[in-house]
Amino acid sequence: MTPASVPSQKGAEVGRRIGVGLMYGLWKPRVLGAWKVPVTGPVIFAVNHSHNIDGPMVMGVAPRPTHFLIKKEAFIGPLDPFLLGIGQVKVDRHTTDRTAITQALGVLDNGGALGIFPEGTRGEGDFAALRAGLAYFAVRGGAPIVPVAVLGSSDRPGRLIKALPPLRSRVDVVFGDPFEASEGARSSHTGGGGRRAGGSGRRTRKALDEATERIQKQLSAHLETARRLTGRR
């Protein structure tokens, strides 16, 4: 894998700083559980997706620079070089995008944080329909998954722009406990960068289906916990 194929970590840090300014300037984020995120080593943020600010919000409040898998349709006009410059990964959702897969695995190989919307597209944000991509990256990249629930945009009126929370309203971001996609994966959440032993895990269709089912249960349980903690529904 050539260095050019791996999204820039420095760019992701710049994106994080921009995200901090925008998110705290436009809304009132309340962040819970950020201390649970592994300090070093590869990690995947699995984020529910019900409104357009989910990605930028997590990018701004997460304790680590994050490289999100973002649909290629968002890379239009000046946003294309900007998103690429801040280390985000352009993905074609309608085909097997090998370039995006290589770049995402490169992030994990380098001990970075990869952000994924496991439902594949914006919807109810309840983790009801997961795609196998999250399981593949977790098993192939040997990375623990940290569930992230973003709550607080769709439960109140007053939005000036559809799919955005009202300006200066509170948005809750709840990070959960890291977990492994596979039952037998060895835990090593605080190790250094680079691929861990878990990267050699089974990647058969059956194994990925089982991992996806396990992930869905974990993410759904975290979402319920996050709703109880924040009083959101």
What does this protein structure show overall?
- There is one protein chain.
- With 233 residues, the protein is α/β, with parallel strands linked by helices.
- 34% of the residues lie in helices and 15% in strands.
- The protein is built from 6 helices and 7 strands.
- The protein has helices spanning 9-26, 54-61, 79-85, 98-109, 133-141, 205-230, and strands at 28-32, 43-47, 66-71, 89-91, 113-116, 145-151, 170-175.
- Strands 1-7-6-2-5-3-4 form a 7-stranded mixed beta sheet, sandwiched between helices.
- The longest helix has 26 residues, at 205-230.
Which keywords apply here?
233 residues; 6 helices; alpha/beta
Low-pLDDT residue intervals, each spanning 5 or more residues: 185-200
Q: Rg to the nearest angstrom?
A: 17 Å
Order of helices and strands: HEEHEHEHEHEEH
Helix-residue proportion: 25-40%
Structural class: alpha/beta
Average pLDDT level: 84
What overall geometry do the principal axes of the alpha carbons give?
A: globular
- Count, helices: 6
Termini distance?
Answer: 44 Å
**Sheet of most strands:** 7 strands, mixed
Oligomer: single chain
* Proportion of residues in β-strands: 15-25%
By DSSP, the count of extended strands is 7
- How is the largest sheet built, in terms of strand order? 1-7-6-2-5-3-4
